[in-house]
Amino acid sequence: MTRPKRPILLVEDSTADTPGTRWALTDLGVADRVVSSTTPETLTYLKTQREQRPCVVLLAVDESSEDGLATLRTIKQDEQLRSIPVVVLGPSGNHDMVDKSFGLGAAGYMARSQDGREFSATMRTLYQYWSLSELPK
Predict the structure, then answer these.
(1) Within 13 Å and on the Cβ side, how many CA atoms surround 136?
(2) If you average pLDDT over residues 97-117, what whole number do you get?
(3) Which terminus of the chain has fewer Cβ atoms in its 10 Å neighbourhood, N or C?
(4) For the segment 40-52, what is each residue's pLDDT rounded down to a tens digit?
């Protein structure tokens, strides 16, 4: 499998449950290319690490918090950052959050499954797509 030339940025909303996401990325063998950030640190990282901008931002959100969607909004409103693809990792079945995510400019929305194998397969597909995709500099 092709390894990304640029890192993957995993942004963890303060209330999001992300151990399964970390496990799936480790299972794919790309954990060494994953940079973790909390919501407040994300914009600082994206603005200061221009040479190591991520190929994709995985924004893990929880349905009870608006922090993650506020981060998505801020990224997509920033002229220097808006071209970075952001995929929201959120709760399954929350159609309101799916609509909000796409309305704010998300490149995709992936439901965090409780089934580890199913979620790992989802992460593998997501990773394969973004590691092969041509992205702006």
Answers:
(1) 7
(2) 87
(3) C
(4) 778 888 888 777 7
Element (H, E) at 52: none
Tell me what pLDDT residue 99 has.
94
Say what the alpha-carbon torsion angle 112, 87, 65, 67 is, to the nearest 10 degrees.
150
Q: What is the mean pLDDT of the chain?
A: 79
Distance CA 75, CA 6 (A): 18
The residue ranges of every structural domain in the chain are 8-132
Q: Residue 3 is inside which H or E element, if any?
A: none
DSSP string, 57-81: EEEE--TT-SHHHHHHHHHHHSTTT
CATH superfamily of 8-132: Response regulator (3.40.50.2300)
